[in-house]
Amino acid sequence: MLRMAAAEGELEGEGCCSLVYVLVGVASVLWLIRKIVYSTQSRWFSWVMHFCTKDVFPELEEVKKEHFASMSSIVSHDPALLDKKAIRILEIGVGTGVNFAHYPEGSHLVVVDPNPHFKSYFEENRKSFPHLQVEDFVVTTGDRMEAVKDESVDVVVVTLVLCSLPSETIQATLKEIQRVLVPGGKFYFMEHIVEFDLKKYWWRRKLQHVFTHWIPVWPFIFDGCCLDRDTLPVIQQAGFSSVHAQKYYAPIPSMFYEPERSNMKGIATK
C-alpha cells in the first residue's frame, strides 16, 4: 500500500510538473508573439491603413471636398508662392496621402508622419496628383516639428490623428501648429469623436467605450486610436483667434466603421 501511494504521489508530481512546463511554454509563445506583433506594429499598421484607404466612399469624399473648398481662396504669405497663386500646406499624420485630391492646384506640401513605413505608400499615391509639389516628408510627430520653420505655412491639415494622441501631446501639437502657421493662417481639422446624441445613439457610446477600454481592439489595430474622445474643447481652448466647428455623422456605408460615425470638422484661425 505504501509503495502504491508513493507511486501515485510520484505520478501526481510528474503530472504537476508537466502542467507547469506546458503553461510556461504557452506563456513563452504568447510573450514572443506579443513582442513580435508590437515590434512590427508600425510596419503592419501602415499596410492596414493602405488597405483601408483603398475603399473610397464617394459621400465621405464630398464632405471632404466641401470642407477643404475654402483653401482655394487663401492667399499665401510667401512672395514666391503668391506669384504662382499657390499656398503651402503642412499635413500632420499624412499617412498614404488620402487628402491629396482636395488640395488646390499648385499647392506646395510639407508632410509629417512618425511612421517611416508610410513613405512608400505615400510616394506611390502622390504620382496620381502631379498638380501638387511635395517639398519635404518629415518623419516626426506633430509635437516635435522643429524641422518646420516658424510662421512658414499657410494651412495646417489634421484628419483622424488627434484621436490617437495622449492629452498632453494634443496640447503640444496644437502649440506647434500655431507656431508654424503664418499670422491669420488656417488649421483644418476632421476627427471622429465620442457619440454626442445619447438619446438616439446611446448604444454607439457603449460600443466606443467597449472597443476602446474593455476590449481595446481599436487602439491595438489603429495605433492608439480612442473612439470615446472629444477633442473639440481642447482645440477651442488652445489659443486660436477663432474656431468654427460642427459635429456630424460621417456617411460611411461600411458597418465596420460604425463606432467612428460620430465626427466633427472645423477651421481654426491663428
Architecture blueprint of SSEs:
Layout: H1 2-39, H2 41-52, H3 58-68, H4 79-84, E1 88-92, E2 108-112, H5 119-126, E3 133-138, E4 153-159, H6 167-180, E5 181-192, H7 198-214, H8 217-221, H9 232-236, E6 242-249, E7 262-269
Summed up:
By secondary structure, this protein is α/β, with parallel strands linked by helices. The protein is built from 9 helices and 7 strands, in the order ααααββαββαβαααββ. A 7-stranded mixed β-sheet has the order 3-2-1-4-5-7-6.
Q: What does it look like?
A:
There is one protein chain. With 270 residues, the protein is of the alpha/beta class. The protein has helices spanning 2-39, 41-52, 58-68, 79-84, 119-126, 167-180, 198-214, 217-221, 232-236, and strands spanning 88-92, 108-112, 133-138, 153-159, 181-192, 242-249, 262-269. Strands 3-2-1-4-5-7-6 form a seven-stranded mixed beta sheet. Strand 2, helix 5 (119-126) and strand 3 form a beta-alpha-beta unit.
